[in-house]
Amino acid sequence: MELVLRGHQTTIIDKLRAGFASGNRSQVLYGPCAFGKTEVAISLMHAAAKKGRRSAMVLDRRVLCTQTSARLLKYRIDHGVLMAGSPMYRPDQPIQICTAQTLEKRDSFPAVDLLIIDEAHCMRKETVEFIRNNTGVKVIGLSGSPFTKGMGSVYSSVESAVTIDQLVDQGWLIRPRVFIAREIDMTGAKKVAGEWSANETTKRGIQITGDIVSEWVAKTHDIFGGPRKTIVFCSGVAHGEDLVRKFGDAGYNFVSISYKDDDDYKSQVLAEFDKPDTDIHGIIATDILTKGFDQSDVMIGISARPFSKSFSSHVQQIGRIMRPCEGKDQAIWMDHSGNYLRFRDQWDALCSDGVRELDDGAEKTKPEPSDKEKEAAKCPKCGALWPGHSDTCSHCGHVRERKSAVVEVAGEMMEIGSRKKAEKYSAEYKRDFYAQLLGYAEARGNNPGSAYHRYVEKFGVGPSMAKPEPQTPGLEVIQWVRSRNIAFAKARAKAEGQVAA
Questions:
Q1: How crowded is residue 501: how many other Cβ atoms within 10 Å of its Cβ?
Q2: Are strands 254-258 and 157-159 parallel, antiparallel or unpaired?
Q3: In Å, how far are 27, 202, 247, 323, 330 from 284, measured between CA atoms?
Q4: Phi–psi pair at 313, nearest 5 degrees
Q5: Fewer beta carbons below 10 Å: N end or C end of the chain?
Q6: What's the gap between Cα 144 and its chain centre?
């Protein structure tokens, strides 16, 4: 199979080459989940090999090394593998795929002109020393969460070409629906280097295991009509084992894997979970699956490991459920950790703006939202995260009443919770939404003019594009129309009640 790059992948390669030309010897490629960072790395190494130059890619897990080698074989690109026990040991090849552990045991890196570091935010000591001591080697660090303190002292720049919001608009990612559930109480918990200790999170996580299970059972049946593949990020090994028991008591097969399990066992479990007809309902992960796990048919993620400052871990976890696949039109994120509200502002900024600098303080301990802020952030009926632009819950249609209508923000007046005037909807999104509204009206025998009015209700202005052909409405449009119908019905009933009184 020939390697064909997407537009943003070609753009990032041009940016990296321009960076090298301007003197940036070590650069970070920021790419969100589904960016295709591995394909970019393969393209760069293949181009270097054609010019007679040597390159190597360093990965910090055996499974990632094996997966990358398989990609190269798929594209029929010759290479060698530096990994203990690999049958692909071919040190003469100009392209080498390596595990960081093997290089550390060898106490040497291969002689290369280009070095690519996967998961560069992990900042392994030996790799950092190699970069600093070999100034003639060009270096590219790959990362979807380049927030580790000290990266700016190793890499001179960060380049990006597409944001999470743009990948969602283009269909390469699915924006998760978020539910704020009962969270693990970390009040007064001990911290190590600014992060809550594993012992503390495990002990406190076990206290709400029953809530985690009951919330999952309720949501998976309410939203999907039955179990769907799930990943649970738990607080520790004992917490994972407790969750397995409680899910089992409820009649569901969840399997816990952790750093304590050997690689063969974990590979067997993940291979079974990958099957379309697997009998495993969910994987419970302790400190793993935050990287290199790209199973796109996972529809539900459960966050049950609180972080006080590790935004990087939060980003890696939530990305595990955002990949699209056939038959998957939504993803659900159930937050029992408090992480989503803790990192909400950062997450929203990352989705819209990407990463523009290193060492920006992203990994500092975050202030805890107040109880009032937590309650205001979720629907009191179903726990769904309130949309920032509406007073109607997009999940159950509950309408909230406000005591205060406006706040003053930098000289402009805006509704609390509303989006700013410069809405971040792309033209393609608006056109598709309008086409689906037309399809919704057509399917129900409604006047096509109702789609126009729905469009105005959604975006605040009439459609500026030519009237598109009707499309079959997706879940987002259906749920939005239903929420507006529910809100209208409740408002009418309230008005009729007032008149009767």
A1: 5
A2: unpaired
A3: 35, 13, 11, 19, 21
A4: -65, -40
A5: C
A6: 9
Q: What is the DSSP annotation of 215-263?
A: HHHHHHHHHHSS---EEEE-SSHHHHHHHHHHHHHTT--EEEEETTS-H
Q: Which residue has the tokens 């992480």?
A: 339
Residue with the two structure tokens 């993940």: 270
The amino acid at residue 464 is S
Q: What is the pLDDT of residues 455-499, one digit of tens each?
A: 888 887 888 778 888 888 877 788 788 888 887 777 777 666 665
Q: In what order do the strands lie in the sheet with 26-30?
A: 80-82, 95-99, 55-59, 114-117, 138-143, 26-30, 157-159
Q: Closest Cα to residue 46, out of 34, 54, 35, 36?
A: 54
Question: How many of the other CB atoms lie within 10 Å of CB of 137?
Answer: 19
pLDDT attached to residue 246? 96
Pull the structure tokens for residue 61: 């897990």
pLDDT value, residue 228: 96
Inter-CA distances, 288 with 36, 58, 117, 177, 373, Å: 21, 19, 19, 23, 31
